[in-house]
Amino acid sequence: xxxxxxxxxxxxxxxxxxxxxxxxxxxxxxxxxxxxxxxxxxxxxxxxxxxxxxxxxxxxxxxxxxxxxxxxxxxxxxxxxxxxxxxxxxxxxxxxxxxxxxxxxxxxxxxxxxxxxxxxxxxxxxxxxxxxxxxxxxxxxxxxxxxxxxxxxxxxxxxxxxxxxxxxxxxxxxxxxxxxxxxxxxxxxxxxxxxxxxxxxxxxxxxxxxxxxxxxxxxxxxxxxxxxxxxxxxxxxxxxxxxxxxxxxxxxxxxxxxxxxxxxxxxxxxxxxxxxxxxxxxxxxxxxxxxxxxxxxxxxxxxxxxxxxxxxxxxxxxxxxxxxxxxxxxxxxxxxxxxxxxxxxxxxxxxxxxxxxxxxxxxxxxxxxxxxxxxxxxxxxxxxxxxxxxxxxxxxxx
Length: 398
Description:
By secondary structure, the protein is of the alpha/beta class. The chain is about 45% helix and about 15% strand.
C-alpha cells in the first residue's frame, strides 16, 4: 500500500506568501515611520540638514527591499550593496525603535509626574537635537560592535559522557557547526576562516544541524562556495540535516549542491558511524509548509537503531525535546534559534523553546542548542556570540 501525501495548492501557497509579505512590509513601514517622525522632530525646522534627513531616511529604509527584488531579477554588485546596507539598517532600526519607545515612555511619565531638570526643559529644541545626535551615536556604536562580534566566533568545548558501549570506540571528537546561512551576507571569505578553524580542531566527525544555506542558491553558486565546503575534513565524515532555510530556498537543489560538495545529508535517515554509534538526521519540521509532505516520525527512525549503542540526533529546530528523550536519544544537537541574535529578541526565544541556547539535560538525554555561527537578516549579533562547538564525547558500558 502506497501512502499519498496531500500536495500543497500552488495558489494557496502564493496567497499565503502575499499575505505574509504584506504584513511584514506593513510592520516594517510603520516601524520606520515611527522612528522617522521622532527623528524629524529632533531637527530644527530651519536647519539645512532637515531635507537631507527627509529624503535620506526613506532611501536607506528602502535599501533592503529593493536589494532583495533586484537580486531575484539580476544578482550583481549593486544588489549585494543594497542588501548589505539594508541589512545593517534592519539592526539599526530595531535599536532606534526601542530607544525612541523608551524616550517616549519617559516623556509620558514626565508629563504626569514632572521630573525633568530645568536645564533640559529651558531649550527644548536644543534638547531634542542633542537627544537625536546621542541616539545616532549610541545605535551606531551598538551596531558596529554587533557587526564585529558576528564576524569573530568563539570555540566552545563541552565534555559529554554517554554510558553505553560504542564498539571499539572510547570517545569521539565532534565539531558542531550550525546556521552558517551561506549566501550574500555570509560568503566565501568568512567560510574559509571558519573552515580553517574547524580543521585546526582535528575533529573525528563534523556535524551540521541545518541552515547551511541562506535560502537563495544563486549567491552560493556565484562565489563557488562549494569548493570551500569540500575543505571541511574529518575521518568519520561530514554530516548535515536540512534546516528551514534549505526548504525555503528549495530542498532538492540544496540537497544536490551540498551532497556534491562533500557533505552527507541525512534526510529522515539513520546511519551507523564506524560501527560505534548511530546518527539520526531528521528533516526540518517546516518541510510540510514547503513540500506538502510530512517528515518521518521520530519513532520510525528510532526503530532503525539498536538502543544498546549511543544514538545522536540532529534536528534543526529544538522542539519536542521531551519526546526525543523518552524515545531513548542520548544526545540531540539543534540550532535555529540564534538565541534571538539581537537582544532583547532572546527573551522571545527563551519563551518559545525549552532550551534556547547552550547545554541542557532532558531526563537522561544531553541537549546542545547552538547560537549558530552565521547570521540571518542583519549581519549583527548583540547579546550572544557566534560559535564553533567542540564536543568531546566519551562512551562506556554499564
